[in-house]
Specification:
Helices cover 48% and strands 16% of the residues. The protein has 26 helices and 30 strands. The chain starts with 36 loop residues before the first helix and ends with a helix.
Length: 784
């Protein structure tokens, strides 16, 4: 009979020789990626390929800590890249709705903004002072005096002509009037009533001529006023120009080789001269309303810095966890202006994540990107067009609202999109743009080999968390326990999990318990307490199910022997918590021709994979026992007290054992639970969740009382996957619990019944022959 496994086979402890440290304080932080040479090479290739479209899709499930790891890895590579340019927007004085984008070397945008802000402030003082000058006032007064003199002369000449013609030019509140006069005095209306017809006709002629001359004089006066205004404006421009020229000279000289800034400064110069009266307003004499209006007018001279790399030391690596359209592209904001009008201008352009990552790297999670409507589409358009157009929520959807059309900013960014494998293959098949934009696939496995090197990398990862998050360092035994936990997560002794999010959480929680117990270093006991506490917080459903079993609401036996009855094991998942539990499987066999009927299958509670396992079981029976006689029987199998769906083939060997027990009338030891799938040749095949299944049955046996007879049969191919908890290995070491690993049904049935397999098979065959003969006799005796 097969011997139980030794304690050493039940878990793989860490090798102290592999961990060359006293504590994680001995290790330097690391940003490397553990045990993933294929994925690392893919990322390095994508980073080094500067051609268009070589963005990177990183295969990885959420919760693995992969996002943080990838970001840190890329940051290490970004140090070799040049610093990207600064970007800013300035007013387009000719087309204000089309702001001008200007590119500058890193750190220069802020300096230009500050310089222009200082310049405008200086000009408000210097221009006001230049106009508060006696020479300017005298020149302005002389221009006004010339206007008054020339304008007066026009009307003096007209008055002389009027008097010579027997009329006068009168100035009234309604304007100038031509009236008849005698001896230098205007005639009254009653005097004009005495005019003869000849005098009336003569006056009409005179009035018509003088009225025409008055119109011409007024026209000439207006021309004089216009010319005077032009002279005044020209005077102001000359005075302002002398100030602005001096103030702008240093800036112009500093940016003489920058065509865009040179052109902008020329526009700025002309706009200041056109709006010089803005600079003449005495700030101390402004009321609240005028102060707001003046401030709004001066916004035209601001500089809107979108990207400032003055404090940047390397190419940016941006992780965006909220990739909405506006956050990706930036946006055009709108605000209420004086008087209640809603307006916008270039100062209300806001940068987005693509602006921040431009010239560097953008890390996105597919789970974030594809949940936001439109985000994937705008990202694609930006990457295909290689420009950034800020989003304007007001005009989104085609609303007919006048907004800004800012000059687009060229885009050069490397995107790393982290998402599940299924999404990658779906996008690759259905989205042509995706294939052209994400040409590099970085495939990271969920596990890495458990080598000495990777165990040390695990230790460095733990050390990095402790250094960066200022946690207590872990001693060697605590590190070793987390390595063992990594194998447990991986589901095998020979691998380590790459779910570094879970590992990092365990480090933090272990630190919490070390802090609670005032330990200088995190110990193995702190790690165990963190694991136990996490288990406790998540196992409420498991506890309820076990209580039902202890209360007798679910029938189970952990001792004695029963024919056609066996304890099968399965795994349930509730959130992050997986646990094993027991299901009683029973078999009844009798005369008939229905064959093997699985009740759960008949009522559609069984899934396809389970049904496949059942049919495989029937193939085993037929191949082994129906070589020289028909397989004539009726048998019913069921999972007792199972009211939910059943899936998977890990119970196929369990069902087979129950069926063989019923046919051979060989009682099964109820202290032993079973898991494993079977093929048609009676070989036991590997299953998943072996640790949870063993521990689930052990927990039940411990609750009922360990007798030393209890244990679990597992597939031999799952032995390498055993990473059982210490409480189980201690019970095995004490002889209180056993674990058998089998390769064949024969090995398993011997352990369960205590009888040699040949005798079981002989009994089964005899029973099948008996059933066949009974059925034949029944048919012969039955009337036609």
């Amino acid at each position: 009979m097969t011997a139980p496994l030794s304690v050493q086979q039940l878990r793989r402890s860490y090798d102290k020789a592999n961990l060359k440290l006293k504590s994680t304080a001995d290790l330097e932080p690391s940003t490397g990626i553990i045990g993933q040479p294929r994925g690392v090479k893919a990322i390095e290739f994508g980073i080094n390929m500067k051609d268009h479209g070589y963005n990177i899709y990183v295969l990885g499930e959420s919760g693995t800590g992969r996002t943080t790891t990838i970001k840190k890895f890329v940051e290490g590579k970004a140090g070799k890249d040049p610093l990207p340019s600064d970007w800013l927007y300035v007013n387009n004085f000719l087309e204000p709705h089309q702001p001008i984008a200007i590119k500058l070397p890193p750190g220069e945008a802020g300096r230009l903004r500050d310089a222009l802000q200082q310049l405008i402030g200086q000009l408000r003082t210097d221009i006001a002072r230049a106009f508060d000058n006696q020479a300017f006032r005298d020149a302005a007064l002389e221009i006004d005096h010339d206007l008054e003199s020339n304008r007066d002369q026009l009307f003096v000449d007209l008055q002389e002509k009027a008097i010579a013609s027997g009329a006068m030019l009168l100035s009234t509140p309604e304007g100038f009037r031509i009236v008849p006069a005698r001896e230098g005095q205007p005639l009254q209306p009653q005097d004009m009533a005495t005019f003869s017809d000849e005098e009336q006709a003569a006056w009409k002629e005179i009035h018509h001529t003088l009225q025409h001359q008055l119109g011409e004089a007024i026209h000439q006066a207006r021309k004089l006023e216009t010319a005077t205004r032009d002279q005044q404006e020209e005077l102001k421009r000359r005075v302002a120009s002398s100030v602005v020229d001096v103030a702008l000279k240093e800036l112009k000289d500093g940016y003489a080789t920058h065509e865009k800034i040179t052109a902008y400064l020329e526009q700025l110069y002309l706009d200041i001269l056109d709006n010089v009266d803005l600079f003449r307003v005495d700030e101390e004499e402004q009321d609240a309303d005028s102060e707001i209006l003046i401030a709004e007018e001066f916004r035209r001279y601001q500089v809107n810095v979108l990207v400032d790399h003055s404090a940047t030391t390397q190419a940016p690596v941006i992780l965006e966890l909220d990739p909405s359209v506006s956050r990706l592209l930036g946006r055009v904001e709108h605000e209420a202006r004086y008087g209640g009008a809603i307006a916008t201008d270039f100062t209300l352009l806001r940068s987005g994540t693509l602006h921040a990552a431009n010239g560097g790297y953008l890390v996105l999670r597919a789970s974030d990107l594809f949940i936001v409507p439109g985000a994937w589409d705008v990202l694609k358009r930006a990457l295909i067009g290689r420009v950034i157009h800020p989003d304007d929520p007001v005009t989104r959807g085609g609303a007919a609202v006048r907004s800004l059309e800012p000059e687009p900013i060229p885009l050069s960014v490397k995107v790393l999109l982290i998402g599940p494998p299924g999404l990658y293959y779906e996008l690759h098949d259905l989205d042509e743009d995706f294939r052209s934009l994400f040409k590099v696939m970085a495939d990271f496995g969920e596990t890495v080999p458990r080598t000495a090197e990777n165990e040390m990398e695990y230790a460095r990862f733990i050390a990095t968390r402790s250094h960066e998050e200022e946690l207590r360092h872990l001693d060697r035994e605590a590190v070793g326990r987390i390595i063992e936990y990594g194998s447990r997560l991986a589901g095998t002794q020979n691998k380590l999990s790459t779910r570094f999010g879970n590992i990092a959480d365990l480090v933090r929680e272990s630190n919490y318990w070390a802090n609670t117990h005032e330990h200088d270093l995190v110990t193995v006991d702190d790690v165990e307490e963190a694991i136990d506490h996490r288990e406790y917080l998540n196992n409420r459903i498991e506890t309820i199910m076990r209580e039902h079993l202890m209360d007798g609401k679910q029938l189970v036996a952990a001792g004695g022997s029963v024919t056609g009855q066996i304890n099968g094991l399965n795994v349930s998942q509730v959130g992050e918590h997986a646990f094993g539990h027991v299901s009683r499987v029973t078999a009844r066999t009798y005369v008939g021709k229905e064959g093997v009927v699985q009740i759960d299958r008949e009522v559609e509670l069984a899934g396809q994979i389970h049904n496949k396992g059942l049919m495989t079981l029937v193939g085993y029976l037929g191949g082994l026992y129906a070589g020289d006689l028909p397989l004539a029987l009726s048998a019913q199998l069921t999972f007792e007290q199972s009211y939910g769906g059943i899936e998977g083939d890990s119970a196929s060997s369990t069902e087979l054992y129950a069926l063989l027990s019923s046919l051979a009338d060989a009682p099964i030891n109820q202290a032993i639970a079973v898991t494993g799938s079977v093929n048609q040749f009676g070989q036991i095949q590997a299953i998943g969740g072996v640790n949870h299944k063993v521990e689930g049955w052990f927990a039940i046996c411990r609750e009922l009382g360990l007798t030393g007879e209890q244990g679990v049969i597992i597939p031999a191919s799952n032995v390498q996957d055993l990473m059982l908890r210490v409480v189980v290995t201690k019970a095995v070491a004490a002889g209180q619990f056993h674990i058998w690993a089998v390769d064949t049904v024969d090995e398993g049935i011997e352990i369960l019944t205590g009888r040699p397999a040949p005798k079981i098979h002989a009994a089964v065959k005899a029973r099948l022959r008996q059933l066949a003969e009974s059925l034949k006799q029944f048919r012969a005796d039955s009337p036609e």
